[in-house]
Write a structure and sequence with these properties.
Helix content is 37%, strand content 30%. By secondary structure, it is α/β, with parallel strands linked by helices. It has three domains: 3-91 and 173-207 and 353-387, 2-Layer Sandwich (Nucleotidyltransferase, domain 5); 93-170, Dna Ligase, domain 1; 214-350, Nucleotidyltransferase, domain 5 (2-Layer Sandwich). Strands 1, 2, 3, 4, 5, 10 and 16 form a seven-stranded mixed beta sheet that branches. It has a five-stranded mixed beta sheet with strand order 13-12-11-14-15, with helices on both faces. α4 (196-207) packs across α10 and α5 packs across α6 (259-270). The mean pLDDT is 87.
């Protein structure tokens, strides 16, 4: 039976999460360890400073996996790590979805050279002469010949070819630094780096294989990331700077408290344990945050055209402490009245429980409290890469 041990890490904008995962062909991936590093927020940081700080936390996390998590492998009789999957969130990568469309009056043969030329033109059109950007991933999300879906068009004749291509780009310096950090701690030949958009899209398809039209909203870091899927194809991605940490900052500002106090006050509020006067201040603060977040949300969605409407199925990636609040934001009546959807949003929070049928965690490692959905979604994605 084929098996593999992986290091899986999610690098966000303000947070790094990762752990070890054991894969066996034909079985669920087993999460052995899980840990998280939050970056303290400073409003005046520029991109270079954020990258330096985040990569510093990434290096610390990798070292902790090596020194603290690696010994746990002996307990479950699996080998040392032989590959790593690094998942990048915005703004670590840029992405676009294109449709390659070829039509001829007479049938033509689809060849590797024909498809490669078309995809290389997409890259040149995006990067121009820049040597600072390179392709992180380029995936065919759907292929149709004469209107019929097909897995592999190469070697077939057609009059009408449509290929939906998802391409993401990353700064060369970022990739090199990430690879150097992993390689200096674990001598791996297989280090794979992918965008959060592609990994989340793959994960939702695994969990809900029958749902073909949906949105994914991720608010686990300093950004909100949006994916829109129609007919089973990833059509659009977008992001804007207001996620979990922005919510905490907004509440702390309005309540004139620290972010730590705001965070604990949210939990007391959700549990109905705030004193009446403080509860009123919390509700006023949440109303201000809701308006700010929804204004940005609406502005971004209006720029995305997907056949005039947006899917009503919405999957929300959010940490436990704010998931209910963001769900309430999206479901608020005043927003639903002007949202361009196929119906009222049906919001489902995606957590570790959502992946429990497809992914296991080591019961002896006491990680269930700390396990993050980003790691379990990454484990599902990596399982397919290893055994496809």
């Amino acid at each position: 039976m084929k098996s593999s041990t992986s290091i899986i890490v999610y690098i966000g904008n303000g947070v790094v999460k990762g752990g070890l995962v054991f894969h066996q062909q034909g079985k669920k991936p087993l999460i052995i360890s899980s840990r998280k590093k939050d970056l303290k927020y400073y409003p005046d940081r520029d991109r270079a400073q954020i990258e330096t700080l985040i990569l510093g936390e990434f290096e610390n996390l990798i070292k902790e996996i090596k020194t603290e998590d690696f010994p746990k492998l002996h307990n479950i009789k699996c080998g040392k790590p032989d590959n790593a999957l690094i998942i990048l969130s915005s703004p670590w990568y840029l992405s676009q979805t294109n449709i390659i469309k070829m039509q001829e009056a007479t049938p033509f043969l689809v060849t590797d050279a024909l498809v490669n030329k078309a995809t290389s033109n997409i890259v040149k059109g995006y990067t121009g002469e820049s040597s600072n950007l390179s392709v992180l991933e380029q995936n065919f999300l759907s292929v149709t010949l004469n209107g019929y879906n097909i897995v592999n068009p190469i070697g077939k004749k057609t009059k009408d070819l449509d290929i939906n291509v998802f391409t993401s780009y990353v700064r060369n310096e970022s990739v090199k630094r990430i690879e150097d950090i992993v390689s200096s701690n674990f001598h791996l030949h297989n280090i794979h780096i992918h965008s959060q958009s592609l990994v989340s899209f793959s994960g939702i398809n695994d969990i809900y294989p029958d749902i073909k039209d949906y949105m994914v909203i991720d608010v686990t870091s300093e950004l909100t990331e949006i994916l829109i899927v129609k007919d089973g194809v990833l059509r659009d991605t977008a992001s804007y700077p207001f996620g979990r940490y922005s919510l905490m900052q907004s509440i702390a500002r309005e309540m004139t408290s620290s972010e730590d106090v705001a965070e604990s006050s949210i939990q007391l509020y959700l549990n109905g344990k705030l004193e009446p006067e403080i509860k009123l201040k919390m509700e006023a603060s949440l109303n201000i945050a809701r308006k700010e977040w929804l204004d940005s949300f609406s502005s971004v969605l209006k720029q995305i055209t997907v056949n005039g409407t947006l899917p009503k199925n919405l999957y929300l990636f959010a940490s436990n402490d704010v998931s209910t609040i963001y769900k309430q934001f999206i479901e608020s009546e005043e927003y639903q009245q002007f949202a361009l959807t196929e119906g009222k949003f049906e919001v489902e929070i995606i957590g570790v429980a959502s992946t429990s049928q497809l992914c296991d965690s080591d019961k002896n490692s006491n990680i269930n409290e700390d396990l993050d959905v980003s790691i379990s979604i990454g484990a599902l994605f990596n399982n397919k890469k290893l055994f496809a």
